Amino acid sequence: MLRIMSEGEVARALKCVLARVSTATKGRRPDVAALGSQARLVAVSKTKPKEMIIEAYSAGQRHFGENYIQELVDKGNDQQILAECPDIRWHMIGHVQSNKVKKVVEVPNLHCIETVDSIKLATTINNAVQKNLGDKKLKRLLKCRAEVCEAQCMETKDVELSMGMSNDFEHAILVGSTNVRVGSTIFGARNVKK
């Protein structure tokens, strides 16, 4: 059974998640803490109504993630969201086909496309890199980041590491994530897409 969140619940849940992000950040080992500042919270609003996004924005949240291109386009161009959330930052967190890039990059306030899986796509958007390692240990992702940085002559602090979701974001922050995606803990269970 789907539970509907009442007005104010999103703001309360967001405040709780932000406190947990802060606590996890403070608990980082010194070598991990040296890689960067507090992890960015991306509130994953896929399948959620604009009223919940506006409530989270009003409570201070600025980064929002969408998994579906059309939903990102619709929400990103929604006149009420544009008016009430002028500096919202959208993250495309789902797969983007190269023939859909133009549609995505035209979304107002698009901050980044988090998943880049081809050279063709990378040359078009050139914003973010994510490597999906499935159930492998998080330290493999940290090693991957270090190897990419070394190969590209970049500092690790200059490369974002996106890992961690509602069920494990605190641990991900502890081991070095700079970007966590949290949806159901803020907005409630995901609505089934019809």
Automatic annotation (TrEMBL):
The modification N6-(pyridoxal phosphate)lysine is found at residue 46. Keywords: Pyridoxal phosphate. The lineage of its organism: Eukaryota, Metazoa, Ecdysozoa, Arthropoda, Crustacea. PROSITE patterns: UPF0001. One of its GO terms (molecular function) is pyridoxal phosphate binding. This is Pyridoxal phosphate homeostasis protein-like. The gene is PLPBP-L. InterPro entries: PLP-binding_barrel, PyrdxlP_homeostasis. Its cofactor is pyridoxal 5'-phosphate.
